[in-house]
Amino acid sequence: MTPERETPSRERTPSGARERTPSGATAAGRPRTRLDQPRSPRRRLLPEWDPEAFGRLSERIARFLGTGRFIVWMTVVIIAWVLWNIFAPGPLRFDNYPFIFLTLMLSLQASYAAPLILLAQNRQDDRDRVNLEQDRKQNERSIADTEYLTREIASLRIGLGEVATRDWIRSELQDLMKELEARQHDGQVTFPTERSDRPSGRDVEDR
Prior knowledge:
- This protein has helices spanning 51-65, 68-87, 100-161, 166-186, 201-206; strands at residues 10-12, 18-20.
- With 207 residues, the chain is mainly alpha-helical.
- It has a two-stranded antiparallel sheet with strand order 1-2.
- Helix 1 (51-65) crosses helix 3.
- The relative contact order is 0.04.
- The model is unreliable at 1-17, 192-196 and 198-207 (pLDDT under 50).
- The chain is 60% helix and 3% strand.
């Protein structure tokens, strides 16, 4: 027998078993990722922030922008800005007429206020959607409970309809007494005048 040839892509382990080694492009030495260890965090160029905290901050700013206090403060700042740049000494003025810097600041304020207001509205819409979903589920549970109680009441009514009530028993006894009285008048039924010594069924039960 000829000895078995071993290819370069195979290696013999100490136990005698053969293992396949990577060949070709994979044999260039690309490091393998360990699945039993967490992946190292990647570096990000953009800054990271907490969306929930940023959303709460935007809601606070949006609420403040929609109040009368903000309008009053903005009016006071604009009036003070204009008066200072009109009546102040020339070297102290920082924004002469036609107040280009003031226009720029108001434009920046409006450009930031609009996205913040939209973000606050989106968060409010999400909360409203969750509340509506919870209300819908609560209504479904209430409807199911109501239907169950309705079925139970209907079954109780059906069961009570088959139970002999006091008025029904009284009416049946009255009809029976009338029938017995009619038979007695016709001579078909005779009642014993003397009481027998034999105890009746009711007396036996009482004893």
